[in-house]
Each structure stands twice: as structure tokens, then as C-alpha cells.
Amino acid sequence: MVMAWRFGAVGVDAVMDVIQDGSRFADWMVAVPPEVRAGPNWPRKGSVVQRYDGREPRMRHAENRHLTVALVERWRPEDDLVLRLRSGLGGWVRIWIRVQSRPGGALIEVHAEPITATARLRFTGSARGAAEERCAQVAERLIELATTHED
Q1: Contact yes or no for 141/27 (Cβ under 8 A)
Q2: Which of 49, 55, 63, 139 could lock 6 by a disulfide, CB 3.0 to 4.6 Å apart?
Q3: 81: closest CA among 42, 33, 34, 136?
Q4: Radius of gyration of the chain from Cα atoms?
Q5: Which residue has the higher pLDDT, 28 or 119?
Q6: Digit-coded pLDDT (tens) for 79-124
Q7: Higher pLDDT residue, 151 or 86?
Q8: pTM for the complete prediction?
Q9: Residue 138, burial from CB neighbour count under 10 angstroms (0-12, 13-18, 19+)
Q10: Is 10 exposed, middle or buried (0-12, 13-18, 19+ CB in 10 A)?
Q11: What is the 3-state secondary structure of the chain?
């Protein structure tokens, strides 16, 4: 497991508002295709984010699991999101985002834990530093978007 945290002069509510906005998922999550669409019940448990090419899937392709980019495992609107994210190598990574109120702003923690063997390849050796950097980028993007959201 890798982890990064960042402090921002933003409120917890502003950060959680950014997370709740499914249309902004690709803006704050690192290493996902830019053409994604969150399901209508985002971010409730069981909701998904899928790749979107502008066409609705039809017939036997209507439930294509290969289009799934992320799946929400837990959502607490006051401070917590846990989701499974498809790794670039085809495996799955569990991402845990926790937002805590601190004097002057909020502390955002981002944890990443590989679930499958192929995802573990991105968390070993020299790749571990890149995994930590991706966690830090998620926190930084959330702070940036929450700052513009508050204005």
C-alpha cells in the first residue's frame, strides 16, 4: 500500500462536493481516460464510472465489464470514498480517499492498494515512487478543484 496526504486551505464540504460531482471524476482522478461517465447514482456504493465514446452500448454489449473504469465500494458523504480503480495494466487497485477538517483547511489522505497481481507490478521497486506520486496528484487536484469550487 502507498499513501500520500496534502493540506489545503479549503473546506471539507468543498472537497466532498467535487468528489460528488460525477462529471468531474476525470478531472481529479489520475490515470483514467478523459472520456469517462459516472453512473446516475454516483458516488453511492455500487455505482460505476465507465469509458464513454459518445455512443450508448446496445444489445449484448449493454453490460460490457471492460468499459468499467471504477466501482465505488464505500461512500460517506461527510469524509470518505473507497473505490476500485482499473489499473493501466489490467488489474484493480483500491483507492481510499479520506478528508479531515483541520484548522485553516482540510487534510486529504489518498491510499492506494493493489488488489490483483497485475496491479501489484505498479507498486514494487522503482514503480512504488510513481504510485505515491499518483496518490499525491489526486489530493492536489482535489484541493485545486475545491478551491475554484468555493470561489
Answers
A1: yes
A2: 139
A3: 42
A4: 15
A5: 28
A6: 999 999 987 667 899 999 999 999 999 999 999 999 998 888 777 8
A7: 86
A8: 0.87
A9: buried
A10: buried
A11: CEEEEEEECCCHHHHHHHHHCHHHHHHHCCCCCCCEEECCCCCCCCCEEEECCCCCCCHHHCCCHHHEEEEEEEEECCCEEEEEEECCCCCEEEEEEEEEEECCEEEEEEEEEECCHHHHHHHCCCHHHHHHHHHHHHHHHHHHHHHHHHC
The pLDDT value given to residue 70: 93
How do residues 41-82 score in pLDDT, each as one tens digit?
Answer: 999 999 999 887 666 666 555 555 457 889 999 999 999 999
CA distance 65 to 60: 11
pLDDT on residue 58? 62
C-alpha cell at 93: 487497485
Cα–Cα distance measured from residue 14 to residue 53, given in angstroms and rounded to the nearest whole number: 30
